[in-house]
Structures are given as C-alpha cells and as structure tokens.
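Supplementary material to the annual report.
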Amino acid sequence: MAESKLAAGSKIAAPPRGLPAWLEIPLGGILVEPGNAVEYRTGSWRTRRPIHDPARCTSCMICWLYCPDDAIVVREQKVVGVDKDHCKGCGICARECPVKGAMNMAEGGAY
Amino acid sequence: MPRLIGLTGDGATAEAMRQIDPDVVAAYPITPQTEIVERFAEFVADGLVNTEFVAVESEHSAMSACCGSSAAGARTITCTSSQGLALMHEVLYIAAGNRLPIVLINVNRTLSAPLNIHCDHSDSMGSRDSGWIQLYCENVQEVYDTVIQAVRIAEHPQVMLPVMVNLDGFVLSHSVERLELLDDEQVREFVGPFQPVVDLLDLEHPPALGALVAPEFHFEHKYAQWLATDGARAVIEGVGCEFGERFGRSYGLLDLYRLEDAELALVVLGSTAGTARAVVDDLRERGIRAGTLRIRCFRPFPADEIVGALQGKKAVAVMDRAGTQGGEGGPVFGEVRAALHTRGVLLPVINYIYGLGGRDVPAASVARVFTHLGQVAEAGKVDRAVNYLDLRGWN
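Predicted assembly:
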C-alpha cells in the first residue's frame, strides 16, 4: 500500500518493515514449518542479563540443561556465552550455576 | 426423484445430515434440538451413515471435538440450542479463527433466566460476532435446503468458515410441514467430497494449528478473517443459485416480498416472515402498499443489499426477536438503521421487540406494527424508536 500524504508527515512511526501483510499469512494461523520458534525473538523481553565468565566456568552444562529457551551457546562442548536474541533474562542459569560467579545477573537488558 | 413427505424441522435437519453423511457428528441433546440428535443417533445405530458419532458430555466438549475433527480434515456437523450454544461460546471463536468449516444447526431458543425452552433469537444473537456465518430459515423446506447448502458454503476455499443454520424452536423444529426430500444421490452429488485446506493428519507436511500469535500478527489474522466473512456473501448467493438451478428452489441473502413498490417495509428474520407475508397480502387488498424484507443471511450482514431494497420507502419497521439489554433496541434494528444512515438514506425506522420466550406472533399483532408504521410514514418522523409487541402493561 502506498504511504499517504498524512502518514508522510506524521510523528507516528511507520509499521515495522519485513513482517508479512495480512494476505501473506497462512489461513487460520496455521504453522506450516516446524522449528520456527527460532524466529521468535524473546530477547526483547529482557530487563536483566546474565554475564558469563569463561575464566570461572567449568562447562558443567547445568545452565544449558536448565535454560527454558535454549539460549546458552555451546561450542565444542564448552559454554561460550548467551544467545542475545532468545535469552529473556529469567536468571535460572545464574541461580542453578554451581560455580560461584561463573554466571552473574546484571541490571538492564542491553548487552 | 424427489418425494413429498410431512416432516418437522428437526426431522428435516436429521434427514439432510443423513444424506450429507458427515465424517463426524459431536453433539449433546438439548430441547428443542433433541429430536435431531435422537434421529441421527438412530441412523448411526442402523448403519445408514458412515459417521463417527461422538456422544460428548457437554456442548463445550461438542464444539471442541468438532474443532479437532474438522482440523483433522473430517467433514463435521453439530447441532444445539440456547444454553448449549452459550456453553459453546468460547469455542465458537476458535472454530472461526482457525478457519474450520464446521456446520452447526441451532434451533433458536431463549436464554435463561427466566428458564424457558421456547423460541427467540437471543441465543444466536449472542454469537453474532463470533465469526460464524449465520443463516436464518423461514420454513421446514428452507431448513432442509439450507443445511445442505451450508456444507458447500463453509467448505468453499475462499470462505473456510463455520456456518450456523438457525431455525425457530418449536415453530419450525416441532411443526410438521410439507417437505420435498431430495434423493440421497442428489444431495451427495451436490455437496461433493470434502477437500480440506487444513489437514493436521498430513504426514508429509505436518502443520500446527492454534499456536500462540504475538501482537505483530494477531490483527492481520483477524482482518483476513473479516475479509473472508465479507466475501462469503457472493458464495452464499452462488450456492443458493446453483441449488435453485438443480432443484428448483433458489436462495439468496435476502428474501423480498412485494417490496418493490411498497411504501411500508417490515424487516424480519425467521419464521415470522411467513406470518408477515399473509398480513402484507391482506393490507394490499385494502390498498395499503406494504412489503417485507426477510434477512436470510445475517452474518455477513448484507448492508448494501438491504439499503438498496429499502431505499425510497416511506417508513421501515425492524422486528427483533431479541433485545440488547441496555442498548437502544434490538440487534437487527441497530445494524439496519446504521446501514441506512451510513449510506445517507435517512428514512424513519422503528423497532419492534417481539416474541420473546416463545410469545406467539399472530397476524393481528403484525398488522398493528403496520398500523403504527403507517402513522410514522404519514408524520414523516419517528414518534418512538423502540416498541414492544404484545407486552402487557406497555403501550
């Protein structure tokens, strides 16, 4: 839809680009592809953030096991950090971490 | 060859369901719909249909089972009345929002309290914004014909919405009328096989239905649903026309009777239209130019068609067999008046609330509405917008 002259001078932000229009959405809200929770970025919910300290972390995988959003990033069997798009800052990783100081919650959602 | 029989509205509904032979019927009996479920359960027990009959423990479960079976690609029918429809209420929205083409036959009965098993439209009017297509029938023949058409309307690829067929409790459900019954083959050929758009049992492309939708998507979903509902008008007319071409009885969104040259117009839903026709004939013999507009399709609301039919009349009375507690007049009145006003057609329009809880609607009472309408037409303005027909102590 073409932007109207009214909208051009408006202080109200234009709708976000990239999201599908009504006619591009599958009928009845049906999900036609599996595994699309990856697309659902829950990171914007975050008001506190976990800070990972690799010097103290033993990669015991307790945080990875407990994270409800699969947001603990693991490479070559080592915890390397937090997925910023999906960590919603619930703090379970820091609470369950058996090593003092390996995962610390900080105020504020932005990294 | 079609054959002529005498049958009640409930009996005609059960016959139509037998001939459609749906994959699943999940229903719970409630007066005055009980006879439909009883008869259909007998068809199942006698092996006359291939239907999986789910004897559920409530109407909430009935509609929930219908949603599941329809989503799994099964042609699904249910029926209810009054409190039963009210108990289905939250699931009605799920059926419509998930675009499941379920057919529901609702035998109109008032809602408690006071407890009453007789006819008015308060049950289905309570569901008018649930996203279901709503058709209201005038007689037993139309009930039978409309149940058959409803399957085609609901399952049309451009519609994919549930359809509610309404018939007046006892007035139609329990009155024996002349019915032209089609052959089983004719009905099966007309409805054809169900080709589901959504099929949860598609193992090649397994989908998920009913997932959480975030604020970024919800509004777009509802808009798509509204547009499909609006677009259903053309499909309802098309299916009604095709039915007429095959079987000799055509149906549309509205049913106009002696309205073209009428000065006084009565707008009405359901079986009362039959009484109104007789009154119109009587008035015409006495030189009064009266006519009726029966709204067959209330959802989607055919606003343009109604305004087109009422334009140029001197005065209009809208009959509502339901009230809106705390609103101004009944639901049909509100929408007809708004449609006229929005299109700049400023006619005097009055409302009559009538027939609540099964109060009889004799011809003499409908004639009194026309008498009032004549006075409004003469004065050129509305004296009192909301009126109550045959209500003791009100005048």
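Residues 62-66 of chain A form the longest helix (5 residues).
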